[in-house]
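Input record, target 12 of the design panel.
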């Protein structure tokens, strides 16, 4: 049975923190592939203030193209409708039958699971991996995740990412304030951002 990690996020922009996490989870859970799924219109956000799905998808492609076991899906960005993770996971389950799926995302998003569409249905079928960012302390995290897993009768694993203090928000702020972003994200993504003048003060 093949094992797939589905790495969901806005990736605005994708950076080395995300890539290190994906590689770590690939190895820890002995997965066959990781599929990055940039969000279309996230259910809890308006598209206002978010870089277009096309740019976020392209940056994710450029960032992952040299890794033999990383792929990128346009499933959520193709859809004009609001994207729900349950629909995304079901899409992959239909596309790759007889496989096991792990949904990987930030701990703060997983802690909001009760507000998502059909958390019970999701956790019945899919395993969640909550990745905590360095320097981001959440009190009683293990208890909170266990409580969620018990409530929905599923499995949630917590993974601590290697200590890379990188965040998309910080990268966006740096660009808009004219500060360097070199070595925080792949050079291909940096060049894409420069070429397309993303995150400049006047454009956000
Ligand atoms: P986000 O704004 O991109 O990220 C939230 C936090 O998690 C940020 O700290 C972010 O760091 C970090 N992060 C993002 N993707 C990550 C990843 N794959 N691994 C580790 N850390 C990650 O994400 P979001 O919009 O809250 O949503 C995250 C995922 O949950 C998406 O796939 C979204 O569709 C899904 N979601 C679904 C529902 C639903 O179905 N109802 C509701 C909420 C969220 P950076 O800022 O550095 O990226």
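The sequence produced for target 12 reads:
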């Amino acid at each position: 049975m093949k094992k797939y990690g589905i790495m969901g996020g806005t990736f605005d922009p994708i950076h080395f923190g995300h890539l290190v996490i994906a590689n770590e989870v690939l190895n820890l859970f002995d997965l066959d592939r990781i599929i990055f799924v940039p969000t279309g219109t996230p259910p809890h956000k308006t598209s206002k203030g978010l870089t277009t799905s096309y740019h976020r998808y392209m940056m994710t492609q450029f960032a992952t193209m040299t890794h033999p076991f990383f792929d990128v899906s346009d499933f959520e960005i193709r859809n004009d409708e609001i994207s729900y993770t349950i629909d995304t996971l079901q899409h992959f389950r239909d596309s790759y039958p007889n496989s096991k799926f792990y949904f990987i995302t930030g701990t703060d998003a997983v802690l909001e699971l009760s507000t998502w569409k059909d958390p019970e249905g999701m956790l019945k079928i899919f395993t969640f991996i909550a990745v905590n960012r360095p320097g981001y302390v959440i009190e009683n995290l293990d208890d909170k995740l266990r409580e969620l897993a018990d409530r929905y009768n599923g499995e949630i694993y917590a993974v601590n990412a290697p200590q890379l203090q990188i965040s998309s928000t910080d990268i966006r702020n740096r660009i808009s304030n004219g500060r360097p972003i070199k070595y925080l994200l792949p050079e291909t993504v940096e060049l894409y951002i420069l070429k397309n003048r993303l995150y400049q003060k006047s454009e956000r």
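Residues 16-28 form the longest helix (13 residues).
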